[in-house]
Write a structure and sequence with these properties.
Elements (H helix, E strand, L loop, with lengths): L1 H25 L21 E5 L7 E5 L3 E2 L16 E2 L26 H4 L5 E5 L5 E5 L4 E2 L8 E2 L22 H33 L1
């Protein structure tokens, strides 16, 4: 009796395997894909928010805030997994060394290397973890927003409209009004000091007599 039950159970498993095998091969979506919601705890999206979804490359994408983008290029449709660290404002790249061209798509697309795609400006990208990185700036260049994950720019590259994004922009020219005030503050000294000196000398001579 026990032997018959064992044979029947094995036959049931064989039939079940034959039924499930075609479904597994077709991959028709009967079994929902696994969603790792914790992936966004590891992802560095910069000025953006992480969205976990198994239909995206690497199972997530970064939704950029207004005024920020992922690359220096216009079409970012296939690069939505990159962090939003490029400001959408006036940037003069001509005063900086030429940037390298966009790299080709790697053969192993399943391997995520943030430094492969990222633009660090005048800096060197270092991979910290699976989804994080830092941009080590060259001399004379600084991370945007003073955050190491952002690219390195020189002051000459940042347009005045970048201030609206919270980026510090150095003032290349001083305020004319401040120059006028400083000139007025110093221009009166020679003439007035001359008359004050004459008055004091005359007073001392009168008292001496």
């Amino acid at each position: 009796m026990a032997a018959a039950s064992s044979i029947n159970f094995q036959a049931f498993l064989a039939i079940l395997l034959l039924l499930l095998l075609p479904l597994a091969v077709k991959g028709n979506g009967i079994f929902p894909p696994f969603i790792d919601n914790n992936i966004c705890e590891e992802v560095q999206c910069g000025k953006g928010t992480c969205e976990a979804n198994p239909n995206f490359p690497f199972n997530f994408k970064c939704n950029c805030d207004n005024g920020w983008k992922r690359t220096r290029f216009g079409n970012e449709q296939n690069l939505e997994y990159l962090p939003c660290i490029i400001p959408d404002c006036s940037l003069d790249y001509s005063c900086m060394p030429a940037a390298p061209p966009l790299p080709p798509v790697p053969y192993n697309i399943s391997f995520f290397d943030p430094c492969y795609w990222l633009y660090c400006g005048q800096g060197t990208c270092t991979k910290n973890a699976t989804y994080t990185h830092t941009c080590q700036c060259d001399y004379g260049h600084y991370n945007l927003l003073n955050i190491s994950a952002y690219p390195c720019y020189s002051d000459c590259a940042l347009g005045s409209d970048c201030q609206r994004l919270g980026i510090r922009v150095s003032r290349s020219t001083s305020d004319p009004s401040s120059n006028n005030n400083s000139n007025q503050a110093t221009s009166f000294l020679p003439g007035k000091f001359h008359w004050i000196a004459i008055f004091l000398i005359s007073t001392v001579m009168a008292l001496w007599k």
